Amino acid sequence: MSERQNGRPTLEQVAALAGVGRGTVSRAINGSPGVSEQAKEAIARAVAELGYVPNQAARVLAGSLTDAVALVIPETEARVFAEPYFLDLIRGVSTELALADKQLLLTLIRSEAERQRFERYVAARRVDGVLLASVHGDDPLPALITRLGMPLVMNGRRSAAEPVAYVDSDNIGAGRAAVAHLVGRGRSRIATITGSQDMYVARARLGGYLAGLAEAGIVPDEALVAAGDFTEAGGRLAMRELLARDPGLDAVFAASDVMAAGARAALREAGRRVPEDVALVGVDDSAVARLMDPPLTSVRQPIEEMGRTMTRLLLQKIGEGNGTGPVAGEEPQRILPTELVVRESS
Amino acid sequence: MSERQNGRPTLEQVAALAGVGRGTVSRAINGSPGVSEQAKEAIARAVAELGYVPNQAARVLAGSLTDAVALVIPETEARVFAEPYFLDLIRGVSTELALADKQLLLTLIRSEAERQRFERYVAARRVDGVLLASVHGDDPLPALITRLGMPLVMNGRRSAAEPVAYVDSDNIGAGRAAVAHLVGRGRSRIATITGSQDMYVARARLGGYLAGLAEAGIVPDEALVAAGDFTEAGGRLAMRELLARDPGLDAVFAASDVMAAGARAALREAGRRVPEDVALVGVDDSAVARLMDPPLTSVRQPIEEMGRTMTRLLLQKIGEGNGTGPVAGEEPQRILPTELVVRESS
DNA sequence: GAGTAGGCTGGGAGCGCTCCCAACTCCGGT
DNA sequence: ACCGGAGTTGGGAGCGCTCCCAGCCTACTC
Predict the structure, then answer these.
(1) Gap between the Cα atoms of B190 and B248, Å rounded
(2) Which end of chain A is less packed: N or C, by CB atoms within 10 Å?
(3) Per-residue model confidence (pLDDT) at position B23
(4) What is the rounded average pLDDT of the residues A280-292?
């Protein structure tokens, strides 16, 4: 049936052509010490002449690592979060993996069946480590991966005291910066539209908002906090509710750009001008923010940088052979700073 | 240094426990014919008991396929195109690969070095096939991959008569549908903002626009065609130019949502109302379209479906062992229909 | 009753590589 | 002249699996 002629040159052939032994070629190719300059040159020539490319399957089988890393994105999140998020993340991960000459295996998990498939995959040690994007508090995956002794780094965390290695952005700082900025613009009745409170990221942003108010000496008002769910519709409803509760509010911090867009629509319905009547600040600094009318002030997360940092941490763990080693020292955890991008909406 | 205890069970152990030979276990696991029910059961029990998972490296080495497929995204494109595009594409590809129990290897190519790295990868036959997203006309990759005898399916094409297998959306139909819709709304001075004309997709959408005009019996006017570059800024500039050339225009078909957003801003600057004065239609049906004010009528591309279709075609090629076989029959090519999503902007 | 076609089965022969050990060559030191 | 060590080297022994062939047994056929 399948006619695999497969004429690829092997180590053995390179060795023969270079007039040395297999072992020497292996050492030369892997940069191991103890190979004479002369041998190195002969081997380099032979490799070039034959167009030799090592067979990875054989390498893996013979005992080294797989040279691949999995990036897992639970689909539930993918829909909710600002879309560009994952692309930026992938970009960062990809960049760093390319530098280390490792492969990126992308896994979207949408169903129980796919989760099990991934479990088998990890169990089969088809990858050297796992990067896990935006995990819900009740996701069984982190525990599972850790139990299998597979190095793991998460993007974001499930609670303030996350035991697993992670890279997160400073969501508390994001809320504080937004409020400080609004206060600086002379606003005093500052409302917020929160994300789903079962996500740590949403709680942290709310916490930042409250901290920001406290720092400005403003007493928080429950009427100025409305629950959203990271969707545009949610943002719109929350904004209507806020306006109903307190028509005098003069600023809103929405915990995501998409919700801010919903809020903006609700404000327009209500005949409020942005920023004259109500100033608006979002989070994500996504394309949506730039394209809104007026362009939205937003807190930027260093998404690509998070991807890079996660990858570096993971590669380091892998390098240490630390699949939650026997006495896995401290799990590395990083919180990267956010940055306020001021536009016309505030 | 690295303490790899690696206590994973092997085929041999399963065979021993099941009281059969290695060959029988292999056959049973791979669903090959010629295994008695009795043996199958004993093996299934042993597999379960030991938690056996086949070692993929060994499988690949012993001659079967790698069970992985690469999805390549040239970075130049990634920035220009509507961001969600690739995520949707990935989603489709991922879905279909999961069904076939294959792995998705994502490769972003941003530099010459990364391209070479990918070349080596393909040369090493680390994947069974390649999916290539949005390729420029002068990209050396398609030729290279084909030359290496690696099955390839592209997303989009480089010219009307693309020799390589591809899945594209009906961009001509998109332009026609947009124009037909605008004509149906009573518009007659319909302008267009094109994408970069060195991309086939941009030329096709322009072609569709022209075809649409022809079908409506409208004589095209050069003054109503402005060149954009798929960016918001480009759309804004193009719109200004169009208004300068013909202040009386009453509709605009922008070849992407992002350009439509730029156009919308320029229209606002010029004091034109949308849709009262000028109706606006974009392409992509992205988040941007939904969030614009007013929400943008847009032509939806079946992106996820394209991803699925590409993947199915590729798997089929792989199945046929058709790495551009000796006399590779017709290369499969699919053009998927687009769909107009009407919103308030028109 | 001998002969033969299947249905299953076991296990040898690699796949191409890394690990590792024994061996070989040169040294300088004594 | 002899010895020990450092620098190199070749190649055996797997890694776990698939392919494939020979062998076995059963069940028919003539």
Answers:
(1) 10
(2) N
(3) 87
(4) 89
User: pLDDT (tens digit, 9 = 90+) per residue, B144-203?
Assistant: 899 888 999 999 999 999 999 999 999 999 999 999 999 999 999 999 999 999 889 999
Question: Across residues A200-226, what is the average pLDDT?
Answer: 96
Q: Which CATH superfamily is domain A171-300 in?
A: Response regulator (3.40.50.2300)
Mean pLDDT across chain A: 89
- Amino acid A77: pLDDT: 62
From residues 39-78 of A, which are strand C contacts by CB within 7 A? 52, 54-55, 58-59, 61-64
Whether the CB of B239 is less than 7 Å away from nucleic strand C comes out as: no
B61 touches strand C (CB under 7 A): yes
DSSP-based three-state secondary structure for A335: strand
**What class, spelled out in words, does domain B11-61 have in CATH?**
mainly alpha
Domain A68-169+304-334 has CATH 3.30.70.100: no
Distance B25 CA to C6 C1' (A): 21
Burial letters A205-239, b for 16+ CB under 10 A, else e: bbbbbbbbbeebebeeeeebbbbbbbbbebbbbbb
Q: Do residues A295 and A162 make contact, with C-beta atoms less than 8 angstroms apart?
A: no
The pLDDT value recorded for residue B122 is 86
Nearest CA in chain A to B55: A124
Please state whether strand C lies within 7 Å of residue A36 at its CB atom: no
Percent with pLDDT over 90 in chain A: 56
Task: Using DSSP, state whether A87 is helix, strand or coil.
Answer: helix
Closest residue of chain A to B119, computed from CA coordinates: A53
